[in-house]
Inverse folding.
């Protein structure tokens, strides 16, 4: 009798201990700023979901050195004012040791002065180059620089002996950043941009721009935008019977694009994080294991495809986890340890931070994929 | 030769976008003419049309025709509820509070749609294939023909309705002078309700036929609504040909502007045209001037 | 006590409350929130001059706010103009612009006016977005300097609180004086019946344009202050929805009431802080609030409070009577 009771007691104790390993020790508080609603919700929503999922997983597995993580998430709505308010709240009220996000370059630029002053490490999930160039002491980022994606495309164009292109970008911060990089790198890759067009994020018909492009010498079109614009462009290209290759950006590297563009997506080439083609990678690829796990977990929990935007948040949480494991949970130690991160296989690529590089990725972070039979194929 | 076919393509693209603006503009005009209200929530009915069709098609697994019917019916129900709950209780409201209330309603409807169906964009399959048709070196899609056809049907129908049917005449009387209309025995409140019914039905129809081209999501209503509004203003808020020509003009201007001047300022061109028209001829391009009543 | 004196006393009390408020939440993030409440109050009071006093709707006021912010931002970052001079220059520029467009725009009435101001707002928004070389485009403009007096820079929430609220209180004082003046009376006459006012010899058109310009200049000043406190600006903060938000603040607080504008701005700035619990639901609550407020409290919170007060008094009197 007492034996059973004892066993019940111990098994209960075991359950309690594994369930909350940090009994006594307060949780480590991490802040998160994502644009969960508003025009950039396509970034913020998967990021929020992923961050919460990873934190739950870490806690389930016993936390970090016996302490649980607590994630405090606020919505910035893609608005700089709200981002600043939320960041102030995270720093002053919630007293977090580090912040993940924001999702967009604009929001990130808005909160940088705050975190630099409060000396709280920030791991941004936005792609803009100016976030980490010049290097700011407390600011890191996980999203691949747009310049890397542009370089991938230009390399391919050179291989195909295409030298005259038309550029068609969306007039929001994603498109503006792409447009800047496309223009900046064209000369060094021997590429001439014959026409440079834009479209609005909510535009419903781009045949006018494409008709204009048809009248030029362009041998290929590079389009920079996020859904649904590029899908409409793909359909418009097909409608106009434009027979030149169409390149897209990593902004549409998800199944959603194929679903929206339908048949018109066939043959479109775009740079993407490896997450899209996790199953096609050779087993020797160091990222493969994490990628497959991320995709599987996300599918199981949210019944949706884990994309590389969510991957930015995955990387951010795991980078912080590593830093806290190595150096404890003071903001300064986290910052120093983040900077020491070497060879971390994340979703976005293999991260190597240093005092001179707070972006941490190389061109290898991108692979080129082509839409084939409503699926993805690696471009060699 | 090349430039000629380019121009044809600009015109054709412009006309097909313009037809969409015209349809949405008609919805604005119908309510305005019966009540003097500018319904800022009009764009949301466009969104509801597309999203509801999608909902009935994919979540309820209905065939296209019943899905479309149900979508129009449901959006009309929403329009009716809106009139009953938010417009009718307000008597003698100032234009300002009517503007605010309709903006509030549009935010509410949009928010509900986002919570119900998520933030993703969805594509509706085209009604009759996606093989482009060629006209004088330019191309359009079969779906564009649907848009033109529905626009024409709706114009003719509304023309017949407002000139020949008793209800249509009564609605025109209400627009002209609600008190006098009431005195001759017209149920003004019923006519107001009726105008919301017609307008939300037209709006949702517009949303349904454009969804295969433009995709649809919870927030498509904002910009489309604004453009439709421009069309109606250019057309002098007529619930007939004026608004249609206004919409087509707007579409062609945008398309030519994007092709020949600058795509970045395409939307700015539309609104500059709007401002100029408001400054020079606030009564619309095609309407005869009326003297202001005191 | 005369009415004038009572108004003065009320303002003095309000000023005192503003001055000592930070003592209660020192070091808290609420100081930061109160900075934005200050900016929004300034904007709402400015818009209320047009909406409440002159009875003219504007759905494009965020454009003036944005122009103020961007002119200051571009002048200080690209042309190395001092922050104070940049602020003055942008106010003058916006003043001229609003005076020029005021004449054709204010000729319109009701819905047409709403549409024209909306169109103007969208055009400005597109310009801010597209002139990438100047404004940095959609990804924003960073590195705007803080305002400073000598070596003393307004670089913390506490310092900015006093800077912003200093300007906001001045705006409120100006607005009180304006509505008590001859101009204020003439404007109210226009609000009630423009034709009657014109018959009485009021130059309605010029007056309306003047108020429009004052309102625009104050909004531009708020924009400059916003740019220098944030040190970063992006076009998204000056879009159509911001214009709608501003109108909502005025309506929720009460048309024509200066303290109402403060209440409206305060509630709409603080509300999201508490709606965060609701996550995605806040947009629905926001829409509902707009509808319910206009339907059931058309005079805004201020008149609502007055009505409750009056009802309570009537109730007390009733009780006295039964007791006797």
């Amino acid at each position: 009798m007492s034996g059973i009771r004892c066993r019940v007691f111990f098994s209960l104790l075991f359950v309690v201990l594994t369930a909350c390993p940090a009994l006594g020790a307060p949780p480590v508080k991490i802040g998160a700023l994502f644009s969960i609603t508003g025009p950039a919700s396509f970034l913020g929503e998967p990021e929020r979901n992923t961050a919460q999922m990873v934190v739950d997983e870490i806690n389930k597995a016993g936390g970090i050195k016996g302490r649980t993580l607590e994630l405090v998430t606020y919505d910035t709505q893609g608005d700089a004012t709200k981002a600043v308010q939320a960041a102030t709240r995270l720093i002053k009220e919630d007293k977090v040791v580090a912040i993940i996000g924001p999702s967009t370059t604009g929001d990130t630029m808005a909160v940088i002065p705050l975190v630099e002053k409060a000396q709280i490490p920030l791991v941004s999930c936005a792609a803009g180059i100016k976030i980490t160039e010049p290097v700011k002491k407390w600011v890191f980022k996980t999203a691949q620089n747009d310049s890397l994606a542009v370089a991938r495309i230009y390399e391919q164009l050179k291989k195909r002996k295409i030298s005259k292109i038309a550029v068609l970008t969306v007039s929001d911060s994603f498109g503006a950043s792409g447009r800047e990089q496309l223009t900046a790198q064209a000369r060094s890759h021997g590429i001439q941009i014959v026409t440079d067009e834009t479209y609005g994020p909510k535009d419903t018909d781009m045949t006018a721009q494409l008709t204009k492009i048809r009248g030029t010498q362009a041998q290929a079109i590079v389009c920079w935008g996020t859904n649904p614009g590029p899908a409409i462009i793909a359909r418009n290209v097909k409608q106009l019977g434009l027979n030149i290759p169409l390149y897209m950006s990593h902004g549409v590297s998800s199944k959603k694009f194929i679903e929206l563009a339908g048949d018109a997506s066939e043959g479109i080439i775009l740079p993407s994080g490896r997450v899209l083609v996790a199953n096609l990678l050779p087993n020797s690829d160091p990222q493969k294991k994490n990628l497959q796990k991320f995709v599987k977990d996300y599918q199981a929990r949210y019944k949706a495809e884990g994309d590389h935007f969510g991957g930015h948040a995955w990387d951010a949480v795991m980078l912080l986890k590593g830093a806290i494991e190595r150096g404890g949970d003071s903001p300064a130690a986290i910052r120093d340890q983040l900077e020491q991160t070497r060879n971390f296989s994340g979703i976005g690529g293999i991260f190597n931070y240093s005092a001179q590089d707070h972006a941490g990725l190389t061109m290898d972070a991108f692979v080129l994929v082509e839409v084939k039979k409503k699926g993805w194929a690696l471009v060699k | 030769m090349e430039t000629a076919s380019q121009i044809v393509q600009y015109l054709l693209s412009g006309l097909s976008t313009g037809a969409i603006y015209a349809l949405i503009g008609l919805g604005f005009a119908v309510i305005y003419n019966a009540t003097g209200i500018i319904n800022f929530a009009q764009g949301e009915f466009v969104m509801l049309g597309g999203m509801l069709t999608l909902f009935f098609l994919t979540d309820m697994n209905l065939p296209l025709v019943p899905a479309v019917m149900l979508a129009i019916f449901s959006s009309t129900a929403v329009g009716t509820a809106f009139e009953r709950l938010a417009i009718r209780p307000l008597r003698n409201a100032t234009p300002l509070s009517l503007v605010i209330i309709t903006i509030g309603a549009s935010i509410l409807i949009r928010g509900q749609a986002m919570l119900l169906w998520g933030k993703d964009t969805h594509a509706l399959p085209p009604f009759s294939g996606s093989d482009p048709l060629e006209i004088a070196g330019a191309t359009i899609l079969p779906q564009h023909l649907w848009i033109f056809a529905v626009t024409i049907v709706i114009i003719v129908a509304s023309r017949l309705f407002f000139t020949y049917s008793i209800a249509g005449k009564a609605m025109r009387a209400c627009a002209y002078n609600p008190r006098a209309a009431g005195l001759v025995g017209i149920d003004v409140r019923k006519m107001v309700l009726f105008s919301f019914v017609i307008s939300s039905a037209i709006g949702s129809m517009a949303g349904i036929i454009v969804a295969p081209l433009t995709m649809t999501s919870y927030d498509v209503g904002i910009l489309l609504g604004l453009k439709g509004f421009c069309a109606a203003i250019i057309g002098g808020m007529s619930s007939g040909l004026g608004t249609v020509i206004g919409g087509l003009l707007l579409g062609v201007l945008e398309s030519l502007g994007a092709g020949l001047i600058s795509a970045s300022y395409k939307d700015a061109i539309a609104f500059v045209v709007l401002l100029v028209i408001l400054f020079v001829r606030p009564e619309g391009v095609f309407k005869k001037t009326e003297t202001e009543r005191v | 006590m005369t009415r004038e004196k009572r108004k003065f006393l009320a303002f003095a009390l309000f000023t005192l409350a503003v001055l000592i408020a930070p003592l209660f939440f020192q070091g808290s993030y609420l100081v930061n929130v109160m900075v934005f409440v200050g900016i929004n109050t300034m904007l709402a009071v400015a818009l209320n001059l047009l909406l409440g006093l002159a009875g003219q709707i504007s759905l494009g006021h965020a454009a003036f706010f944005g122009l103020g912010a961007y002119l200051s931002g571009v002048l200080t970052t690209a042309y190395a103009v001092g922050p104070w001079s940049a602020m003055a220059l942008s106010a003058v520029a916006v003043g001229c612009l609003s005076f020029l467009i005021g004449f054709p725009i204010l000729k319109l009435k009701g819905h047409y006016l709403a549409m024209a101001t909306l169109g103007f707002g969208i055009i400005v928004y597109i310009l801010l977005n597209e002139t990438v070389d100047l404004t940095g485009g959609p990804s924003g403009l960073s590195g705007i300097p803080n305002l400073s007096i000598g070596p003393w820079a307004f670089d913390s929430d506490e310092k900015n609180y006093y800077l912003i609220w200093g300007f906001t209180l001045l705006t409120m004082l100006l607005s009180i004086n304006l509505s008590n003046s001859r101009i204020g009376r003439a404007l109210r006459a226009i609000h009630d019946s423009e034709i009657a006012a014109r018959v009485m010899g009021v130059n309605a058109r010029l007056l309306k344009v003047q108020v429009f310009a004052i309102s625009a200049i104050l909004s531009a000043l708020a924009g400059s202050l916003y740019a220098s406190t944030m040190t970063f600006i992006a076009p998204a903060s000056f879009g159509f929805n911001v214009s709608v938000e501003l109108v909502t603040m005025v309506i929720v607080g009460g048309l024509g009431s200066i303290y109402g504008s403060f209440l409206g701005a305060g509630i709409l700035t603080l509300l999201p802080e508490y709606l965060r619990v609701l996550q995605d639901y806040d947009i629905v609550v926001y829409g509902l609030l707009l509808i319910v407020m206009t339907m059931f409290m058309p005079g805004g919170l201020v008149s609502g409070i007055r009505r409750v007060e009056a009802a309570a008094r009537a109730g007390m009197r009733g009780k006295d009577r039964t007791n006797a």
Summary: The mean pLDDT of chain C is 87.
